[in-house]
Amino acid sequence: MEQTHSTPQTEATSGIQGNIRPRRISVAPMMDWTDRHCRTFHRALSRHTWLYTEMVTTGALLHGDVARHLDFDAAEQPVALQLGGSEPADLAQAAKLGEQWGYKEINLNCGCPSERVQRGAFGACLMAEPTLVADCVQAMRDAVSIPVTVKHRIGIDTIEHYDFVRDFVGTIADAGCETFIVHARNAILKGLSPKENREIPPLRYEVAYQLKREFPKLEILINGGVVTYDEIAEHLQHVDGVMIGREAYHQPYFLSEMDARFYGANAPIPARQEVELAMQDYIGAFVERGGYMGAVTRHMLGLHRGIHGGRGWRRVLSDARRMHAARSRMAVDALFEEARSHLRPDLLEAA
User: What residue spans carry the region label Disordered (predicted)?
Assistant: First the structure.
């Protein structure tokens, strides 16, 4: 089912410490962003960071184009599939498809606060129905042999007491879920946009820490507002893993040190130029199969952020007219050469 394409992936590095959990660092599922091209780019930056798809609804899989939603390159691994839904039978069927297509984990979205998702009776509103979520998890676990995990908030609307999220986690854990990704904010179901829900409700990391203390055998990952290596290191003193969101997208080179810092890898940190050239090769092969260059470069625009000439580099690779005109590997190479002409190599090496 999977298609094999040219990718910037290298072989797994050696020297990884055996006692490190594979989800120690992960990139959050982000709608319209973490598609297969974005994941290929992130994998060029980090060999070991755990990656997630965008949320895929059960309806899209059971009544739509399965290949369009699930196809990915094996070189992106490890990759988890995030599902949106609330019908146990539908989720079980969708999870089985995910396993058949080669995903390493099925994650249930119990954290998205958008009204569109709520109309589908899933996302953060499911936190009010822990028994239903437990049934969904049990159905998926019965259908697949890979891990089934849950991503959730610490509360909904004005419910802020710890007992609410503790009981939610406890109920789902009784159904066999062993991994919980805790976005350490409440979800406000009415009155705030998804963007505002990522910014306005206060972060309360201590809630995730307390969950880990109360459920020491569960794998607890923390998500929300993490933007520095020091913050990651601090969280890892209390929980099992850290999920990075928009910082990984807007400042992608942030991922380049994850393997060395948090997985004990001994491979060299990839240089920006190395990552760019690998993606250039990937894009060349993609457009020769009829793909649109801008579908990939849109995810790369932060690679040289903060570097002298980075704005000019981004301007070339975000020109939609020229992206549409690039229909050959030669055209792709020419655009990248023009983009690189804006960068000063001496400053790039120093960075």
Answer: 1-21
Residue with tokens 């992960």: 26
C-alpha 147: how far from chain center = 16
Query: Has 245 been labeled as part of a binding site?
Result: yes
Distance CA 284, CA 222 (A): 37
Known binding residue 37? Answer is no
Residue 223 marked ligand-binding: yes
Q: Is 190 annotated as a binding residue?
A: no
In the CATH scheme, what is the code of domain 25-262?
3.20.20.70
Tokens of 224: 């929300």
Task: Point out the catalytic residue in the list 38, 112, 125, 177.
Answer: 112
List per-residue pLDDT tens for the chain, 351 residues long: 434 444 443 334 344 566 899 999 999 999 999 999 999 999 999 999 999 999 999 999 999 999 999 999 999 999 999 999 999 999 999 999 999 999 999 999 999 887 766 666 778 999 999 999 999 999 999 999 999 999 999 999 999 999 999 999 999 999 999 999 999 999 998 888 888 988 889 999 999 999 999 999 999 999 999 999 999 999 999 999 999 999 999 999 999 999 999 999 999 999 999 999 999 999 999 999 999 999 999 999 999 999 999 999 999 999 999 999 999 999 999 999 999 999 987 655 545
CA atoms within 13 Å, Cβ hemisphere of 195: 0
Q: Is 82 annotated in some ligand binding site? A: yes
Task: Please give the angle made by the CA atoms of 216, 181 and 190, to the nearest 5 degrees.
Answer: 130
C-alpha span between 277 and 332 (Å, rounded) = 11
- Concerning whether 38 is annotated as a catalytic residue, the answer is no
What tokens does 320 get?
A: 């939609």
- What dihedral angle (degrees, nearest 10) is formed by the CA atoms of 193, 198, 202, 204? 140
Is 246 annotated to bind a ligand? Reply is yes
